[in-house]
Amino acid sequence: MPKLIPITIPKWGIEMEHGTISEWRVAEGDKVAKGDELVDIETDKIVNSFEAAHDGVLLRILAEEGDDLAVGTLIGVMASEQVAEDEIDAFIAANSLASPVAAEEADARADQIAATATEQSGSQPARISPALRRKAERLGLDPRTIAGSGYGGRILRDDIEAARASGDGMPLRQLQGAQKTIAERMTLAKQNIPHFYLQRDCTMEAPLAALDALREQSSAPVTINHLLVHAVAGALRAYPSLNINVLPNGIRELDSIDIAIAVETGDSLLTPVIRDIGEADITRIAQLSAEVVARTRNKELTAQDLEGGAITVSNLGMLGVDSFTAIINPPQVMILAVGGIRQRVVLDNGQVTAERFCSLSLACDHRVINGATGARFLAAICEGLDSM
């Protein structure tokens, strides 16, 4: 086993190019065993835990929570035995990927300040990682004034937070983790995808009657969402030209009907994909949906669980929303926004009756879908609901 062990941003999934440090589970100087969770890394809205491959001690943390880094970037160093500080520094220099220009400049500036201060005052420079030095600098803190509680007197993240708490001012909170990733993806989606929106009110009498019957027959809990997903799957069968993804280098035609559903997790919103449901009945869709929802809320999703599908179904009706429009999640080409079920008065063969309905809003990518095709697709969804 090597004496010094690098910890780098891993590559989880074919499309993964970078990861965000969500939370360090251990601190500098902690002993860890093989299989212990070292750090949570976020990739495309999900969080996976990176485990120790060997027994040892975590000597250095080189990236702080919220740092977004390329796959392969060195974020920490472990050791299987006692190692001199200069040996660790040499190992880091030899194993680090090229840093962004801003980070290089910040490190150079911090090192210059520390060196100058040492020459002028004769004091020792603070023992702190480059990432935490940048954090202290952003907060207006001088690392030389912070008491380090880590291994060998190194300054840890908690030391910086304690120093900040003891000072004045109200620092800005930065977007981090899932919130930061979602903000970036939605901003790019809105900027790069020419959205257009189609709205339609669909009668829900037949679906609600079918729902009552299914709840009596099925052992799996069935909800209105499962009926909506079934109707969308039927519409994709009728319009296979819309079962596509738009990629930077072309259009990918999908060979199965996979549909994403929006799932709230408390602090985030994820869109796991229910796969291969082109011929599935409502009970089967309910079973598959329950599985992915449970895995989402238990934080057991993988990057592959969020990939694929041409459309997402997002329902806010249970929160009292009548109707809304949503942003397409690339590389998908549509998202269906579902409002709550309401009642209205209608005239049927001269008779005034009450009818239950809901408002559907379909957002389409105008690069690959025209208005007429989108309208027919939305009509097919409503027809699928009405024929249940």
TrEMBL record:
Domain called Peripheral subunit-binding (PSBD): residue spans: 127-164
Family matches, as CDD domains: lipoyl_domain
Gene3D superfamilies in alphabetical order: 2.40.50.100, Chloramphenicol acetyltransferase-like domain (3.30.559.10), E3-binding domain (4.10.320.10)
EC number: 2.3.1.-
Pfam families assigned: 2-oxoacid_dh, Biotin_lipoyl, E3_binding
Keyword Transferase applies: yes
Any one GO cellular component localisation term in the record: pyruvate dehydrogenase complex
PROSITE patterns reported in the protein's UniProt record: BIOTINYL_LIPOYL (PS50968), LIPOYL (PS00189), PSBD (PS51826)
PANTHER family listed in its UniProt record: DIHYDROLIPOAMIDE ACETYL/SUCCINYL-TRANSFERASE-RELATED, DIHYDROLIPOYLLYSINE-RESIDUE ACETYLTRANSFERASE COMPONENT OF PYRUVATE DEHYDROGENASE COMPLEX, MITOCHONDRIAL-RELATED
Family to which the UniProt record says this protein belongs: Belongs to the 2-oxoacid dehydrogenase family.
Name listed for the protein in its UniProt record: Dihydrolipoamide acetyltransferase component of pyruvate dehydrogenase complex
Source organism of the structure: Seongchinamella unica
